[in-house]
Input
Amino acid sequence: MDYTRCTITTASGEHIANLPMARRETVYDVITRGDLVTLRNTCRGSTICGLCRVTVEAGAEALEPPKVDERDLLGEDAPENVRLACRLTLPAAARQLVISTPYWQKT
Ligand code: FES
Output
């Protein structure tokens, strides 16, 4: 299987984890499988709640733009680098994705 890496940081850039991520996995899958941090949500990755927002700190240039369902949940005011973890996958060209949310803290 072809893996890349998903790096999880605090909003201030402190490293929390660096997890392997398969090509078709979502960031939601990676985070819940890793069980190292909590990702806010109420729909378990079904793209209904809109709570699983993450900020893409690095690697955004390789990402596909959000599809309609993700864009609708994010709303017009969301910055371009804010995405829903349950919709966020990496294209083949990407090797590294760095994400954060304001509520993750280094323990
Ligand atoms: S987990 Fe609910 S929208 Fe992503």
Summary: Helices lie at 27-34, 68-74. DSSP finds two helices and five strands in the chain. The CA atoms of residues 26 and 88 lie 5 Å apart. The first helix runs from residue 27 to 34.
